[in-house]
Specification:
The chain contains eight helices and 18 strands. By secondary structure, the protein is an alpha+beta fold. The chain folds into two domains: about 60 residues, Beta Barrel (OB fold (Dihydrolipoamide Acetyltransferase, E2P)); about 210 residues, Chloramphenicol acetyltransferase-like domain (Chloramphenicol Acetyltransferase, 2-Layer Sandwich). The strands form five sheets. Strands 8, 11, 14, 15, 16, 17 and 18 form a seven-stranded mixed β-sheet that branches. Strand 12 and strand 13 form a beta hairpin. Helix 4 packs across helix 5 and helix 4 packs across helix 7. The radius of gyration is 36 Å and the shape is globular. The chain starts with 6 loop residues before the first strand and ends with a helix. One of its GO terms (cellular component) is mitochondrion.
């Protein structure tokens, strides 16, 4: 595991006592605050004892099973089934039959007497109890312990709010040109590269180009007492927020400044698949200098994303909605998207943040400019 991770929760044993395992075969899964980590057998052998229980907290280097080394044949060898002793046939004599008893002669049937109908007895009227009013809706409660990832997310988000001087600026972007650009080239790109051209790569590329004029967006603050040093970078590692069943993860597209649209799109697709398949590694999520979050895929119209410390800014994308807008003095219906840039006011002034977001908007509304950048 990474150096930043010192402990985890043992979620599940995939092998039990008596099972034979090969070298590097998975024997358990440990949940950390970032990802699930597989624990593999250091050598071939048979599991003799489980030293911890599921849901226990374990530390790095702590033994979790007792393994008896040995080859598969030896470990798998089971005692041969001994032939069952032959059963001696015991002669059984038939049980003595009971003496026959003569059945009594059938008696003559007696004539059936007609029953006189009985008059119903008067019953005392009972007071009926008032019906119990039915409960409207359920009022049950469930308490579920947070998993490590959820706890870590909560801790990091609260830390961000308590540390950064967060402020959000908004803008809106006309998606017409980018949608037309994608429509024209998506089939060719898919045929030549196998990559489905989307919008995330365009926004990533637009941010990279805008950072050339405003490098503070890609910088961070370091040092004691809240920080006294600004770290500027000549590379851009974009954290892409991906929702999974366990929570939000942010795998990183590294060196995005050296990629074109297709390269960024492929990197995002690969990381997204690994996240959904629960196969992300610590290295996939380490670092990151800027984050892009797309709440629009869930229908979000507008929101204020939270900065992923120690980064300085995060761009929030939202749903594309057709709205009436004024174009050259005329009202037209255009596919519009709201953009939200949350930034750390300790490092970024309002002028820089607004200028950055306007530049991103301009690149998206004329995607041909990104090919010249």
């Amino acid at each position: 595991m990474a150096e930043s991770i010192t402990e985890g929760t043992l979620k599940q044993f995939s092998k039990q006592v008596g099972d034979f395992v090969e070298r590097d075969e998975e024997i358990a899964t440990i949940e950390t605050d970032k990802i699930d980590v597989a624990v593999n057998a250091p050598e071939s052998g048979t599991i003799k004892e489980l030293l911890v229980s599921e849901e226990d907290t374990v530390t790095v280097g702590q033994p979790i099973v007792k393994l008896e080394p040995g080859s598969g044949g030896e470990a798998a060898e089971k005692p041969k089934d001994e032939p069952a002793p032959e059963k001696k046939e015991e002669k059984t004599e038939p049980a003595p039959s009971k003496p026959e008893t003569k059945e009594p002669a059938p008696s003559k049937p007696e004539p059936v007497k007609e029953k006189q109908p009985e008059k119903p007895k008067p019953t005392e009227s009972k007071k009926e109890a008032a019906p119990t009013p039915a409960q409207v809706g359920g009022r049950e409660e469930r308490r579920v312990k947070m998993n490590r990832m959820r706890l870590r997310i909560a801790e990091r988000l609260k830390q961000s709010q308590n540390t950064a001087a967060s402020l959000t600026t908004f803008n809106e972007v006309d998606m017409s040109s980018l949608m037309e650009f994608r429509k024209l080239y998506k089939d060719d790109v898919l045929k030549k590269t196998g990559v489905k051209l989307g919008f995330m790569s365009a926004f990533s590329r637009a941010c990279v180009l805008a950072m050339k004029d405003l490098p503070a967006v890609n910088a961070s603050i370091e040092g004691p007492n809240g920080g006294d040093t600004i770290v500027y970078r000549d590379y851009v590692d974009i954290s892409v927020a991906v929702a999974t069943e366990k929570g939000l993860v942010t795998p990183v597209v590294r060196n995005a400044e050296g990629m074109d649209l297709v390269g960024i799109e492929k990197a995002i697709a690969d990381l997204g698949k690994k996240a959904r398949d629960n196969k992300l590694t610590i290295e996939d999520m380490a670092g990151g200098t800027f984050t892009i979050s797309n709440g629009g895929v869930f229908g979000s119209l507008m929101g204020t994303p939270i900065i992923n410390l120690p980064q300085t800014a995060v761009l929030g994308l939202h749903a594309i909605k057709e709205r009436p807008v004024v174009v050259n003095g005329k009202v037209e219906v255009r596919p519009m998207m709201y953009l939200a840039l949350t930034y750390d006011h300790r490092l970024l002034d309002g002028r820089e943040a607004v200028t950055f977001l306007v530049k991103v908007k301009e690149y998206i509304e004329d995607p041909r400019r990104m090919l010249l950048g």
